[in-house]
Inverse folding.
């Protein structure tokens, strides 16, 4: 099974579920992260849904330039380009994650420290292992580091906190990618469209799940 198919299955099982375990990664950033301080209370006014917005229009963004580079590189390890389908960073997923952690909502606020410290840790660990930052390392080096972090129970106990960060970042990457038009097309999602007829779920899938297509009222 390739990585893209595995991610599709993961989304089918639990799309959008975000981890909420607290963690701390003690790595100092090369540039202090600016934490948005507004709005002082509440979430502000509703957006104008017919007006185009660009990143940073609604609240100050969080990532430093270094973190933005690391985030884009990490996104592309998780969902690389494949055939005619672009990579995650090519469709703006790193920008989506920056927007997510910058938003003044409770879940986003909780993720901000996790994601920014995690990106700083990834860079520092890459420098320690390979002599260069994650964004500047080779594809093989990036993949090796991510493979260590992707384990449910890392062999090195010192990677436990980083592994929790990676799982959170991977979930956000998949969420960002598969909610773009490109990602939905790759996933085979057609949305709410009219059908001339609907014959129900495939019989082999119904049998595999041990269900029945009989409707009882």
């Amino acid at each position: 099974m390739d990585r893209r198919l595995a991610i599709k299955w993961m989304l089918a099982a639990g799309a959008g579920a975000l981890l909420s375990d607290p963690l701390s990664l003690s790595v100092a950033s090369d540039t202090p992260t600016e934490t948005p301080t507004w709005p002082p209370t509440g979430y502000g006014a509703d957006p104008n849904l017919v007006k185009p917005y660009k990143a940073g229009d609604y609240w100050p963004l969080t990532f430093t330039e270094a973190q933005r580079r690391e985030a884009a590189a990490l996104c592309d390890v998780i969902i690389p380009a494949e055939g005619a389908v672009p990579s995650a960073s090519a469709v703006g997923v790193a920008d989506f994650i920056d927007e997510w952690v910058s938003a003044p909502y409770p879940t986003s606020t909780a993720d901000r420290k996790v994601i920014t410290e995690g990106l700083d840790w990834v860079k520092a660990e890459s420098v320690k292992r390979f002599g260069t930052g994650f964004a500047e390392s080779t594809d093989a080096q990036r993949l090796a580091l991510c493979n260590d972090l992707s384990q449910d129970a890392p062999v090195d106990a010192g990677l436990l906190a980083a592994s929790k960060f990676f799982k959170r970042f991977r979930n956000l990457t998949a969420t960002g990618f598969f909610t773009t038009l490109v990602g939905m097309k790759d996933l085979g999602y057609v949305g709410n469209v009219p059908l001339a007829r609907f014959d129900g779920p495939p019989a082999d899938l119904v049998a595999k799940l041990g269900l029945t297509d009989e409707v009882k009222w």
The CA atoms of residues 204 and 210 lie 10 Å apart. Residues 3-19+49-208 form one domain.
